[in-house]
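Internal ticket #5521
Category: modeling
Description: The requester needs a full-assembly model to guide mutagenesis choices. All entity lines are attached below as received. Residue total reported by intake: 810.
Assigned to: D.W.
Attached entities:
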Amino acid sequence: MSHEQSQLQKRFSEIISDANLSPKQKSNYLALEAEASLPYMQISSEAKLALEEGVLCDMFEGHAPFKPRYVLPDYSKYLHQGSKYLELNAATNFDEALNMLTILYHHVPSVTSIPVYLGQLDDVLMPFVGDLTDEQIYQKLKLFWIMLDRTLPDAFMHVNIGPSDNIVCRTILRVDAELKQIAPNLTFMYDPAVTPDDLLRQAATNICECSKPHIANYPAHASAYGDKRFGIVSCYNSLPLAGGSNTLVRMNLKELALKANSIQEFLEETLPCYSQIMVELMDARSEFLHEKSNFFEGFLTKEGLIEESRFAPMFGIYGMAEAVNSLMDKEGCHERYGHSDKANQLGHSISEKLAKLVDSLPVKYGLNGKALLHAQGGISLDKDVTPGVRIPYGTEPDPVSYVRATAGHHQFYTSGISDILTIDETVKSNPEAMYNLCKGAIHAGYREFTANVASNDLVRVTGYMIKLSEIAKYDEEGSRTNTTFLGNEAAKNTGILERKPRVASIEMSPVYE
Amino acid sequence: MARVIKNNKTEKQAKVSRVLTFSCVDGPGNRLVLFLQGCNFDCITCHNPHTINHCNHCGDCVESCPSDALSVNELGQVEWDAVQCTHCDKCIEVCAHKSSPKITHMSVSEVVELIHFNRFFLNGITVSGGEATMQLPFIIDLFKAVKANEALSHLTCFLDSNGSLPTSGWQRIAPYLDGVMVDLKSWQEETHQWLVGRSNHRVFESIQWLVEHDKLHEVRLLHIPGKSDLDSEVVAVGAYLQRLPSKVKIRLNAFQHHGVRGEALGWAKCSEEQMKAFHEQLSALVQRTIITPSVYV
């Protein structure tokens, strides 16, 4: 016992004395260590084994979840009704609205302890524009944007805009391209029936400038959740508005494929068996959150900004590429994922099977009793396994072929696919090509289109942005932003900066190393 | 080049060295690019010399192939098996004839089908080379077919050319053509003759004709410090470019070693600093944005 304590204490003291972390970053890691020192929730021996073998992974969310992974408050409702708990009246103008948002952001938890969702800001703010001039709106939003980056420096934090054309949407695109900050991350909702082409062109031009925004297929998400009833948060998780995700458990398809002797065995036995264990884990985690942590007793629930019934576990998967390739090998066929129709089709059938399993397996705390399937972007500790359903780094075909090979997956992943297309920097002098590619991808069935321009200092590492120049400096000096060190770890472990024009997909780095 | 198809009409075929479905440097937006084999220039600085000549079936490459993708058929012609090929490019390395055995023959309808398959990703198509216009009848039929196809007629049809096509050729393709990118490789006749093996008279004539008919999209200048004369003649070049319509794009390319063979490999590459200096000189004379390379290799 005393030996174990001294191990813990040693770890605390390593964190406390780390020269590269700010006091706040240290507090976060200390809290994670404290939670990790509690005993794990009651789970079966099969589930324990699956976790130990690395077939399933609980994302290091902690042993006793006391806050949901992702929370998407109804910011519009909040501005219109005010808050008793925060002693705020309803907003009556643009300044009050921005001030109220700033306050609430500090009360919205998430797995990173910084909010991952900042709202559909054009819808939220348009009612307060009044007779402000374009220039006044620009000045106010610019200061707001700078405040977000400096006080909530975490690039998981996500703003949504679009699909309709309005002054707040246009101004946010203008400010974002001008400031090129890491935070906030930005999603532009695109609806071919509503969004004017020149607005999508503006968004595509912004991508060439600063690898933001990410373009979401509005009709695809709306048909899963209902019009205006969802948000895109963190690294492209599409989740219910006024709800969110209580937990994310992920399945390593690469490891799982090793357990099957044939494609048929994989689809008919291995996947169903381990999906059942996934459900057990998701239930154990969400039961603790919903029944023991008292999270849903807080003011967010009491004031109607979130509803307990709108939270669901995310059923994450990764390592599709390795799974497909090893299953192909087992059938004596050596065609590769991303490069052969046969291998790609197998990938699509695995996704289809997963979607059916998720739909047929009820969970205790889900959206309409169900979990949400997600192609997970990996974490910085992953080695030799490809994120989500992406084509392995360094073997990607050209962007159009890439989209074609992977588009077939998108219909199955209700809570999104975390993936990034890297486009070489010649696109900077021809943003129209980005626009063409984006339109083609959405038409091909992409739920979300995310692109990185290879030479930009600001690059995506899955859901978040990092500055390459800061990564270079970090080892020496530490960073102001919470995500640079995640990117740094990812860069070291996955060689993402060495491979050809492509940036890794890592959702987060959940433990202190 | 013609072959008989089912309905008994002859359909033109092209010798194609490469097809790209994503390119952002061959005209506006994303373009499907068809690279045709064969060129009537023989530039010392050519960065893809294996596209200059058509295969003469000498067979030298066959033995060099490590994956048995090349063979000589009963007619004594070199045949390429695309499935066996690993694209190690050993065959291109050993070819003394500035050619490649890895050429596919594509009919107009095959290309149209490919464009149709990719149409939602495209702004248009560009035919490049080699020198594309050496297969002009095929291109005319291809562009005609694109413009006549309801699902494709919005796509723009561009050519990338060395400008050697006579005016009569431009006249034939003009009705189906949206824009042309032309290389201006040097200013003085003698320099051009030395660098590419031909006079630049036709190049200036082509540029003039394309301007008059509103078909000139871009003029490209390859900067080879100390070798081409675009920098030493910068005042004349600048004045010439300044007279082009303002919507015509001007792009500077830097001489690099990638793909180059022979004598020019001994020439110094154009550095970023040299490109900046040239860009500065030209910008003082030409009032429009001049595009410079984004990468130096």
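Resolution: model delivered.
Comment from assignee: Residues 493-508 of chain A have pLDDT under 50 and may be disordered.
Ticket closed.
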